[in-house]
Amino acid sequence: MNTKSKRLLQTLLVFCYSLFLQFNAFALMDGMSTFDVQGPVAREQLHVFWWTLAIVVFLTLTVGGVFFYTLIRFRSKPGEEDSVPEQSHGNANVEIALIIASCILLLVIAVPNAKALFLMEAPPKEEGEPIKVVAIGHQWWWEFQYPDLGITTANELHIPAGRPVDFDLKSADVLHSFWVPKLAGKMDVVPGQINKIWFKADKADKFYGQCTEFCGDSHANMRFLVYSHEQADFDQWVRDQKKDGVKPESPDQVNGQQIFMKGCNSCHAVKGTGAMGVVGPDLTHFGSRETLGSAIYDNTDENLAKWIRDPKGMKPGNLMNLEQVNMVLSDRDVNALVAYLKSLK
Ligand code: HEC
Ligand SMILES: [Cu+2]
User: Fold this and answer.
1) In 10 A of CB 265, how many CB atoms?
2) What percentage of the chain exceeds 90 in pLDDT?
3) Domains with residue ranges and CATH for the chain
4) E strand residue ranges, 148-233
5) Which residues are near ligand 1 (CB < 6 Å)?
6) pTM for this one?
7) Would you state the pLDDT for residue 29?
Protein backbone atom coordinates (compact mmCIF):
# COMPACT_ATOMS: atom_id res chain seq x y z
CA MET A 1 0.00 0.00 0.00
CA ASN A 2 1.48 3.40 -0.89
CA THR A 3 1.56 6.36 1.55
CA LYS A 4 -1.32 8.12 -0.13
CA SER A 5 -3.80 5.28 0.30
CA LYS A 6 -2.49 4.72 3.83
CA ARG A 7 -3.30 8.37 4.68
CA LEU A 8 -6.72 8.01 3.13
CA LEU A 9 -7.43 4.87 5.13
CA GLN A 10 -6.28 6.55 8.36
CA THR A 11 -8.50 9.57 7.74
CA LEU A 12 -11.42 7.31 7.05
CA LEU A 13 -10.84 5.34 10.26
CA VAL A 14 -10.63 8.52 12.37
CA PHE A 15 -13.80 9.79 10.75
CA CYS A 16 -15.70 6.56 11.45
CA TYR A 17 -14.41 6.49 15.03
CA SER A 18 -15.53 10.06 15.69
CA LEU A 19 -18.94 9.24 14.24
CA PHE A 20 -19.10 6.26 16.60
CA LEU A 21 -18.20 8.49 19.57
CA GLN A 22 -20.87 11.00 18.53
CA PHE A 23 -23.50 8.31 18.51
CA ASN A 24 -22.35 7.11 21.92
CA ALA A 25 -22.54 10.62 23.36
CA PHE A 26 -25.95 10.87 21.80
CA ALA A 27 -27.14 7.68 23.50
CA LEU A 28 -25.77 8.82 26.89
CA MET A 29 -27.51 12.16 26.57
CA ASP A 30 -30.82 10.44 26.17
CA GLY A 31 -32.39 12.68 28.82
CA MET A 32 -31.51 15.76 26.79
CA SER A 33 -31.99 14.62 23.23
CA THR A 34 -33.63 17.15 20.92
CA PHE A 35 -34.84 14.18 18.84
CA ASP A 36 -37.02 12.85 21.64
CA VAL A 37 -39.57 15.67 21.49
CA GLN A 38 -42.27 15.78 24.19
CA GLY A 39 -44.17 18.95 23.36
CA PRO A 40 -45.50 21.03 20.45
CA VAL A 41 -42.73 23.65 20.34
CA ALA A 42 -39.86 21.14 20.26
CA ARG A 43 -41.84 19.04 17.76
CA GLU A 44 -42.22 21.99 15.39
CA GLN A 45 -38.51 22.80 15.71
CA LEU A 46 -37.53 19.20 15.01
CA HIS A 47 -39.74 19.32 11.95
CA VAL A 48 -37.78 22.36 10.70
CA PHE A 49 -34.55 20.45 11.34
CA TRP A 50 -35.56 17.35 9.32
CA TRP A 51 -37.00 19.44 6.53
CA THR A 52 -33.84 21.56 6.22
CA LEU A 53 -31.64 18.47 6.48
CA ALA A 54 -33.57 16.77 3.67
CA ILE A 55 -33.06 19.75 1.38
CA VAL A 56 -29.39 20.08 2.26
CA VAL A 57 -28.85 16.37 1.58
CA PHE A 58 -30.67 16.70 -1.73
CA LEU A 59 -28.46 19.68 -2.69
CA THR A 60 -25.27 17.90 -1.64
CA LEU A 61 -26.19 14.85 -3.69
CA THR A 62 -27.15 16.77 -6.84
CA VAL A 63 -24.22 19.22 -6.79
CA GLY A 64 -21.81 16.49 -5.69
CA GLY A 65 -23.25 14.12 -8.29
CA VAL A 66 -22.68 16.57 -11.15
CA PHE A 67 -19.21 17.30 -9.78
CA PHE A 68 -18.14 13.64 -9.65
CA TYR A 69 -19.75 12.89 -13.00
CA THR A 70 -17.68 15.72 -14.53
CA LEU A 71 -14.52 14.55 -12.82
CA ILE A 72 -14.85 11.07 -14.27
CA ARG A 73 -16.45 11.81 -17.61
CA PHE A 74 -13.97 14.55 -18.60
CA ARG A 75 -10.75 13.24 -17.02
CA SER A 76 -7.73 13.13 -19.29
CA LYS A 77 -7.36 9.74 -20.88
CA PRO A 78 -4.10 8.08 -21.88
CA GLY A 79 -2.78 9.66 -25.05
CA GLU A 80 -4.87 12.81 -24.64
CA GLU A 81 -2.65 14.55 -22.05
CA ASP A 82 -1.52 17.31 -24.41
CA SER A 83 -4.78 18.05 -26.19
CA VAL A 84 -7.12 20.81 -24.94
CA PRO A 85 -10.81 19.87 -25.08
CA GLU A 86 -13.39 22.09 -26.73
CA GLN A 87 -13.90 25.30 -24.67
CA SER A 88 -17.17 27.15 -24.04
CA HIS A 89 -18.12 30.18 -21.96
CA GLY A 90 -21.15 30.19 -19.67
CA ASN A 91 -24.74 29.32 -20.51
CA ALA A 92 -27.40 31.93 -19.72
CA ASN A 93 -30.24 29.38 -19.62
CA VAL A 94 -28.46 27.10 -17.13
CA GLU A 95 -27.58 30.08 -14.93
CA ILE A 96 -31.11 31.49 -14.88
CA ALA A 97 -32.52 28.03 -14.16
CA LEU A 98 -30.08 27.60 -11.25
CA ILE A 99 -30.99 31.00 -9.78
CA ILE A 100 -34.70 30.19 -9.97
CA ALA A 101 -34.12 26.72 -8.45
CA SER A 102 -32.12 28.26 -5.56
CA CYS A 103 -34.90 30.78 -4.88
CA ILE A 104 -37.51 28.01 -4.82
CA LEU A 105 -35.38 25.93 -2.44
CA LEU A 106 -34.88 28.93 -0.14
CA LEU A 107 -38.64 29.48 -0.08
CA VAL A 108 -39.23 25.82 0.68
CA ILE A 109 -36.90 26.18 3.68
CA ALA A 110 -38.30 29.58 4.72
CA VAL A 111 -41.95 28.56 5.00
CA PRO A 112 -41.67 25.97 7.83
CA ASN A 113 -39.09 28.23 9.53
CA ALA A 114 -41.51 31.16 9.53
CA LYS A 115 -44.28 28.87 10.77
CA ALA A 116 -42.10 27.72 13.68
CA LEU A 117 -41.09 31.30 14.50
CA PHE A 118 -44.73 32.40 14.69
CA LEU A 119 -45.58 29.41 16.88
CA MET A 120 -42.72 30.24 19.27
CA GLU A 121 -43.87 33.85 19.59
CA ALA A 122 -46.72 33.13 22.04
CA PRO A 123 -48.86 30.11 22.97
CA PRO A 124 -51.80 29.88 20.53
CA LYS A 125 -55.29 29.75 22.08
CA GLU A 126 -55.95 26.17 20.97
CA GLU A 127 -53.00 24.94 23.08
CA GLY A 128 -54.97 25.73 26.25
CA GLU A 129 -54.97 28.17 29.15
CA PRO A 130 -51.33 29.22 29.77
CA ILE A 131 -49.73 29.36 33.20
CA LYS A 132 -47.28 32.19 33.84
CA VAL A 133 -43.75 31.59 35.19
CA VAL A 134 -40.92 34.07 35.70
CA ALA A 135 -37.60 32.22 35.39
CA ILE A 136 -34.59 34.10 36.73
CA GLY A 137 -31.03 33.00 36.01
CA HIS A 138 -28.56 33.49 38.87
CA GLN A 139 -24.89 32.46 39.01
CA TRP A 140 -25.40 29.38 39.16
CA TRP A 141 -28.97 28.43 39.86
CA TRP A 142 -32.51 29.10 38.68
CA GLU A 143 -35.31 30.89 40.49
CA PHE A 144 -38.90 30.16 39.44
CA GLN A 145 -41.71 32.55 40.40
CA TYR A 146 -45.40 31.92 39.70
CA PRO A 147 -46.80 35.48 39.91
CA ASP A 148 -50.46 34.39 39.65
CA LEU A 149 -50.07 31.71 42.32
CA GLY A 150 -47.78 33.56 44.74
CA ILE A 151 -45.15 30.80 44.72
CA THR A 152 -41.37 31.04 44.50
CA THR A 153 -39.16 28.01 44.14
CA ALA A 154 -35.74 27.11 42.79
CA ASN A 155 -34.06 24.63 40.46
CA GLU A 156 -37.04 22.28 40.22
CA LEU A 157 -39.84 23.64 38.08
CA HIS A 158 -43.30 22.05 38.36
CA ILE A 159 -45.82 22.53 35.58
CA PRO A 160 -49.21 21.09 34.63
CA ALA A 161 -48.98 18.65 31.68
CA GLY A 162 -50.99 19.57 28.59
CA ARG A 163 -51.01 23.28 29.39
CA PRO A 164 -48.69 25.89 27.88
CA VAL A 165 -46.23 27.55 30.24
CA ASP A 166 -45.58 31.17 29.34
CA PHE A 167 -42.15 32.32 30.57
CA ASP A 168 -40.65 35.70 31.28
CA LEU A 169 -36.89 35.11 31.34
CA LYS A 170 -34.79 37.44 33.47
CA SER A 171 -31.22 37.51 34.72
CA ALA A 172 -30.04 38.59 38.15
CA ASP A 173 -26.45 39.06 36.98
CA VAL A 174 -24.88 37.95 33.69
CA LEU A 175 -25.97 36.29 30.43
CA HIS A 176 -27.51 32.84 30.81
CA SER A 177 -29.57 30.69 28.47
CA PHE A 178 -32.65 28.65 29.28
CA TRP A 179 -32.94 25.22 27.66
CA VAL A 180 -35.15 22.17 28.17
CA PRO A 181 -34.15 20.16 25.07
CA LYS A 182 -37.20 17.88 24.92
CA LEU A 183 -39.65 20.78 25.27
CA ALA A 184 -38.20 23.74 23.32
CA GLY A 185 -35.06 25.27 21.84
CA LYS A 186 -32.78 27.63 23.76
CA MET A 187 -33.55 31.21 24.69
CA ASP A 188 -30.99 33.70 25.96
CA VAL A 189 -31.49 35.20 29.41
CA VAL A 190 -30.23 38.78 29.25
CA PRO A 191 -29.66 41.22 32.15
CA GLY A 192 -31.95 44.26 32.06
CA GLN A 193 -34.35 42.70 29.58
CA ILE A 194 -37.26 40.26 29.57
CA ASN A 195 -37.08 37.52 26.95
CA LYS A 196 -40.07 35.33 26.17
CA ILE A 197 -40.35 31.62 25.60
CA TRP A 198 -43.17 29.11 26.04
CA PHE A 199 -43.52 25.37 25.94
CA LYS A 200 -45.95 22.62 26.76
CA ALA A 201 -45.32 19.06 27.92
CA ASP A 202 -47.59 16.47 26.29
CA LYS A 203 -47.86 14.33 29.41
CA ALA A 204 -46.70 13.88 33.00
CA ASP A 205 -42.94 13.30 32.98
CA LYS A 206 -39.59 14.65 34.17
CA PHE A 207 -37.27 16.69 31.98
CA TYR A 208 -33.70 17.94 32.21
CA GLY A 209 -32.75 21.57 31.71
CA GLN A 210 -29.39 23.30 31.44
CA CYS A 211 -27.95 26.80 31.18
CA THR A 212 -26.36 27.02 27.73
CA GLU A 213 -24.66 30.41 27.74
CA PHE A 214 -21.28 30.46 29.45
CA CYS A 215 -21.82 32.37 32.69
CA GLY A 216 -18.73 31.68 34.84
CA ASP A 217 -17.16 28.97 37.03
CA SER A 218 -20.15 26.70 37.53
CA HIS A 219 -21.91 27.28 34.23
CA ALA A 220 -21.82 23.55 33.46
CA ASN A 221 -23.35 22.88 36.89
CA MET A 222 -26.26 25.23 36.31
CA ARG A 223 -28.89 22.62 35.61
CA PHE A 224 -32.54 22.30 36.54
CA LEU A 225 -35.42 19.84 36.41
CA VAL A 226 -38.91 20.20 35.04
CA TYR A 227 -41.69 18.02 36.43
CA SER A 228 -44.93 17.97 34.48
CA HIS A 229 -47.96 16.71 36.43
CA GLU A 230 -51.58 15.83 35.82
CA GLN A 231 -53.64 18.92 36.69
CA ALA A 232 -54.89 17.45 40.02
CA ASP A 233 -51.34 16.60 41.14
CA PHE A 234 -50.17 20.03 40.08
CA ASP A 235 -52.95 21.68 42.11
CA GLN A 236 -51.87 19.65 45.13
CA TRP A 237 -48.26 20.76 44.62
CA VAL A 238 -49.44 24.38 44.46
CA ARG A 239 -51.38 24.01 47.72
CA ASP A 240 -48.31 22.54 49.44
CA GLN A 241 -46.00 25.24 48.10
CA LYS A 242 -48.28 28.03 49.29
CA LYS A 243 -47.86 26.91 52.89
CA ASP A 244 -45.26 28.44 55.20
CA GLY A 245 -42.15 26.47 56.09
CA VAL A 246 -43.11 23.78 58.63
CA LYS A 247 -42.42 24.53 62.29
CA PRO A 248 -39.44 22.56 63.66
CA GLU A 249 -40.42 19.74 66.03
CA SER A 250 -37.48 17.63 67.18
CA PRO A 251 -34.78 19.27 69.34
CA ASP A 252 -32.34 18.90 66.43
CA GLN A 253 -34.69 20.72 64.08
CA VAL A 254 -35.32 23.50 66.61
CA ASN A 255 -31.59 23.88 67.11
CA GLY A 256 -31.10 23.86 63.32
CA GLN A 257 -33.57 26.66 62.82
CA GLN A 258 -31.84 28.77 65.49
CA ILE A 259 -28.49 28.33 63.72
CA PHE A 260 -30.13 29.04 60.39
CA MET A 261 -31.38 32.38 61.71
CA LYS A 262 -27.83 33.39 62.68
CA GLY A 263 -26.53 33.87 59.13
CA CYS A 264 -28.11 31.57 56.53
CA ASN A 265 -31.18 33.84 56.73
CA SER A 266 -29.27 36.77 55.23
CA CYS A 267 -29.14 34.93 51.90
CA HIS A 268 -32.08 32.48 52.07
CA ALA A 269 -35.81 32.86 52.65
CA VAL A 270 -38.06 30.46 54.54
CA LYS A 271 -41.65 31.69 54.37
CA GLY A 272 -43.31 32.19 57.76
CA THR A 273 -40.01 32.81 59.55
CA GLY A 274 -37.96 36.01 59.63
CA ALA A 275 -35.63 34.57 56.96
CA MET A 276 -36.09 36.71 53.86
CA GLY A 277 -32.72 36.64 52.08
CA VAL A 278 -32.81 36.76 48.29
CA VAL A 279 -29.17 36.03 47.39
CA GLY A 280 -29.68 32.24 47.36
CA PRO A 281 -32.58 29.89 46.58
CA ASP A 282 -35.83 30.07 48.58
CA LEU A 283 -35.65 27.13 51.00
CA THR A 284 -39.27 27.15 52.29
CA HIS A 285 -39.91 23.67 50.82
CA PHE A 286 -36.32 22.56 50.31
CA GLY A 287 -37.04 19.17 51.95
CA SER A 288 -39.45 18.34 49.13
CA ARG A 289 -36.80 18.85 46.43
CA GLU A 290 -35.16 15.74 44.96
CA THR A 291 -31.93 17.51 44.14
CA LEU A 292 -29.45 19.93 45.62
CA GLY A 293 -27.32 22.69 44.12
CA SER A 294 -29.31 23.29 40.90
CA ALA A 295 -29.95 19.63 40.18
CA ILE A 296 -26.33 18.43 40.35
CA TYR A 297 -26.63 16.27 43.52
CA ASP A 298 -29.30 14.04 44.99
CA ASN A 299 -30.79 15.74 48.02
CA THR A 300 -29.50 13.22 50.58
CA ASP A 301 -28.48 13.97 54.18
CA GLU A 302 -24.81 13.25 53.34
CA ASN A 303 -24.73 15.52 50.30
CA LEU A 304 -26.53 18.28 52.19
CA ALA A 305 -24.04 18.07 55.09
CA LYS A 306 -21.14 18.21 52.62
CA TRP A 307 -22.78 21.18 50.89
CA ILE A 308 -23.09 23.13 54.14
CA ARG A 309 -19.54 22.24 55.26
CA ASP A 310 -17.84 23.04 51.98
CA PRO A 311 -20.05 24.82 49.43
CA LYS A 312 -17.15 25.66 47.09
CA GLY A 313 -15.84 22.11 47.18
CA MET A 314 -19.25 20.85 46.10
CA LYS A 315 -19.68 23.48 43.38
CA PRO A 316 -16.76 25.55 42.04
CA GLY A 317 -17.20 29.30 42.45
CA ASN A 318 -20.31 28.80 44.62
CA LEU A 319 -21.53 32.19 45.85
CA MET A 320 -22.74 30.59 49.09
CA ASN A 321 -20.10 32.05 51.38
CA LEU A 322 -20.34 31.39 55.09
CA GLU A 323 -17.32 33.56 56.01
CA GLN A 324 -19.29 36.53 54.74
CA VAL A 325 -21.74 36.05 57.62
CA ASN A 326 -19.09 34.88 60.13
CA MET A 327 -20.51 31.38 60.46
CA VAL A 328 -18.18 28.71 61.79
CA LEU A 329 -20.09 25.44 62.12
CA SER A 330 -19.35 22.42 64.31
CA ASP A 331 -20.39 18.93 63.18
CA ARG A 332 -23.36 19.17 65.56
CA ASP A 333 -24.42 22.45 63.97
CA VAL A 334 -24.25 20.91 60.52
CA ASN A 335 -26.33 17.90 61.61
CA ALA A 336 -28.91 20.19 63.18
CA LEU A 337 -29.09 22.28 59.98
CA VAL A 338 -29.56 19.10 57.93
CA ALA A 339 -32.38 17.97 60.23
CA TYR A 340 -34.07 21.35 59.97
CA LEU A 341 -33.71 21.76 56.19
CA LYS A 342 -34.90 18.22 55.46
CA SER A 343 -38.01 18.85 57.60
CA LEU A 344 -38.99 21.74 55.27
CA LYS A 345 -41.24 19.60 53.10
C1 HEC B 1 -23.67 34.73 51.15
C2 HEC B 1 -24.97 34.15 50.89
C3 HEC B 1 -25.31 32.79 51.44
C4 HEC B 1 -25.23 32.36 52.75
C5 HEC B 1 -24.74 33.14 53.96
C6 HEC B 1 -25.73 31.02 52.74
N7 HEC B 1 -26.10 30.63 51.49
FE8 HEC B 1 -26.89 28.86 50.94
N9 HEC B 1 -26.81 29.40 49.00
C10 HEC B 1 -26.39 30.63 48.55
C11 HEC B 1 -26.38 30.59 47.11
C12 HEC B 1 -25.97 31.74 46.19
C13 HEC B 1 -26.81 29.31 46.73
C14 HEC B 1 -26.95 28.76 45.32
C15 HEC B 1 -25.66 28.11 44.94
C16 HEC B 1 -25.67 27.45 43.60
O17 HEC B 1 -26.41 26.46 43.41
O18 HEC B 1 -24.90 27.89 42.72
C19 HEC B 1 -27.08 28.60 47.96
C20 HEC B 1 -27.57 27.29 47.99
C21 HEC B 1 -27.96 26.65 49.15
C22 HEC B 1 -28.63 25.39 49.18
C23 HEC B 1 -29.08 24.56 47.98
C24 HEC B 1 -30.45 24.99 47.55
C25 HEC B 1 -31.00 24.25 46.37
O26 HEC B 1 -32.15 24.48 46.03
O27 HEC B 1 -30.29 23.45 45.78
C28 HEC B 1 -28.82 25.06 50.51
C29 HEC B 1 -29.49 23.85 51.06
C30 HEC B 1 -28.24 26.14 51.27
N31 HEC B 1 -27.73 27.09 50.41
C32 HEC B 1 -28.20 26.17 52.64
C33 HEC B 1 -27.56 27.17 53.39
C34 HEC B 1 -27.35 27.11 54.81
C35 HEC B 1 -27.80 25.99 55.71
C36 HEC B 1 -26.68 28.25 55.14
C37 HEC B 1 -26.18 28.66 56.51
C38 HEC B 1 -25.28 27.73 57.14
C39 HEC B 1 -26.47 29.02 53.94
N40 HEC B 1 -27.02 28.33 52.89
C41 HEC B 1 -25.84 30.25 53.89
C42 HEC B 1 -26.03 31.72 49.29
C43 HEC B 1 -25.83 31.69 50.66
CU1 LIG C 1 -24.48 29.37 32.13
Assistant:
1) 18
2) 83
3) 24-75+90-242 (2.60.40.420), 251-343 (2.60.40.420)
4) 151-154, 156-160, 165-171, 176-180, 184-189, 195-199, 205-211, 223-229
5) 140-141, 154-155, 218, 260, 263-264, 266-268, 279-281, 283, 286, 289, 292-294, 307-308, 315, 318-322, 324-325, 327, 337, 341
6) 0.87
7) 63
